[in-house]
Amino acid sequence: MSKIKKNILLVDDDVDYLFQKKLELEKEGFQVFTAHSIKPAKKILEETSIDLAIVDLMMQEKDDGFVLSYQIKSNWPKTPVIMVTGVTAQTGLEFDNITENEKKWIKADSIFTKPVRSEQLVREIRRLLANE
Amino acid sequence: MNNVNDVLNVLIIDDEEGMCLGASRALSSTKVFIDDLKVMVGFSSTAVHSYTEYKNSIIDKKYDLILLDYKLPDGSGLDILQEINEQSKETLVIMMTAYATFETAVQATKLGAYDFLAKPFTPEELRNSVRKAATRFVLAKRAKSFEEEKRKIRFEFISVLSHELKSPINAIDGYLKLLKEGSITPESENYPMIIERSLIRLEGMRKLIFDLLDMTRIESGQKARNIKPLNLTPILNTLIEQNKYLAQQNNITVNLFAKDEISIDADQSEIEIILNNLINNAIKYNKPSGTVDITVNDKQNLIEIQVKDSGIGLSREEQDKLFNDFVRIKNSDTIHIQGSGLGLSTIKKITALYEGSINVSSQKGIGSTFQVTLKKYLNDTIYPKIVT
């Protein structure tokens, strides 16, 4: 790993979740920026060089995560996006980014279902950053 | 009323061409009015003459009603009846036969025939049977779609509810784990904050459970309502007092503009749910050092309660969805405010019990005014004053 800390953007509408995940990821040696909705998230993306974004699916609107990851991929195509969601447990709706059709509208590199185990998330972050 | 709202597809299966033509003709001029639903039903019929033709006819079309001959040149009507009932429970079959014995009728009914017509029958007998079947078909279809809609709503409600209950558990769980593994200790700078946040999330969960109980009690109609003459003003004063601590935290002034005596015949707990939710919201969604003005207008048989705040306000889209279950307006102004998303939807349900309403007018960044109207005396019957 390079000596410079990687910048991670964490977007979720639960302030307690943001606080806890930020602490976890900082312990793993990342620099963490947090936002609770699309607007502040985009401000951070514009002002800071973000290496990877972790986005919750349901925020103000049910599909904010899709919208934000789409915008990230359009403006910062090289930034990996991990989407985290509790949507499957909540709605029985299942989706993934495996088929071509799904990849067309779900612009995330990985999708995780909440609750996400810390080690699992960190492993995925490292994998995506290594691919960069 | 002659407009047809629904057309049922009828398949006539009979090897006698005359029978097919006669039945088609009788059906083309038949309309059935279903009184319960205020729906007029018409018929569109197709005729086939054998088992083979029947098989071809159902490849790309679904029939609602089938008039079926008992005896076909290449098979028995009973075989078709059995197939139909294995495939679709909705399709209704009327058996037609010249061999109208008791045994065949029993056999056909066992296999799922809806009705039985003995040949020869008059067009009127046919119409009567079809009329009965059509009514049954349309009512069953409507009942099914209503059940599905209800199931869907219940599923959505429970999904959202489980999410709303899970989030605080996850938050508190996360904080406790941080303490357990020693990432945060009583000496840490963040220690008071995480204790405070855990308590806030617990309180939010408790509020959600209480709001949920209020709502289900009202929705189920199980709760015994105790309607009696009440004076609103002292109730309002008590509720303002109860919300005083919350108001003081943000230096919010609550003013009440009401006569000393405002009478209404109502259930006290229902009135308290309405008023407390309105006052509590007006304080929670206010700006620091803001004001809440509560005005009560006592009109003839109507009470108007206005709660005006100088708070964060609502956009047009936010106002539109505000009164639905579990709607919480999430934006940077509200992210730190706890709420169950059930308060306003519950108020709306209660106001309906008093033939009243709830409305909001609001301007983003300036404030919102919620107005509730309630009928003072339901059915316009004024309770006699009891003189003791």
Summary tags:
heterodimer; A: 132 residues; alpha/beta; Rossmann fold; five-stranded parallel sheet; 18% strand; B: 388 residues; Heat Shock Protein 90; 2 domains; six-stranded mixed sheet; 46% helix; elongated
Description:
The complex is a heterodimer of chains A (132) and B (388). Chain A is α/β, with parallel strands linked by helices and 132 residues long. Chain A has helices spanning 15-27, 38-47, 64-75, 87-91, 100-105, 118-131; strands at residues 7-11, 31-35, 52-56, 81-85, 110-113. Chain A is built from 6 helices and 5 strands, in the order βαβαβαβααβα. Chain A has a 5-stranded parallel sheet with strand order 2-1-3-4-5, sandwiched between helices. In chain A, α2 (38-47) runs parallel beside α3. Chain A is globular and about 35 Å long. Chain B has 388 residues and is of the alpha/beta class. Chain B is built from 11 helices and 15 strands. In chain B, α1 (17-28) crosses α5, α6 (191-220) runs parallel beside α11 (343-353) and α7 crosses α9 (268-284). The longest helix of chain B has 58 residues, at 123-180. The two termini of chain B are 58 Å apart.
Fold topology:
The complex is a heterodimer of chains A (132) and B (388).
Chain A: E1 7-11, H1 15-27, E2 31-35, H2 38-47, E3 52-56, H3 64-75, E4 81-85, H4 87-91, H5 100-105, E5 110-113, H6 118-131
Parallel strand pairs in A: 1-2, 1-3, 3-4, 4-5
Helix pairs in contact in A: 2-3
Chain B: E1 6-13, H1 17-28, E2 32-34, E3 39-48, H2 51-57, E4 65-69, E5 71-72, E6 75-76, H3 77-87, E7 92-97, H4 102-110, E8 115-118, H5 123-180, H6 191-220, E9 227-231, H7 232-242, H8 244-249, E10 253-257, E11 263-267, H9 268-284, E12 291-299, E13 302-309, H10 316-321, H11 343-353, E14 357-363, E15 367-375
Parallel strand pairs in B: 1-3, 1-4, 4-7, 7-8, 10-12
Antiparallel strand pairs in B: 2-3, 5-6, 9-11, 12-13, 13-15, 14-15
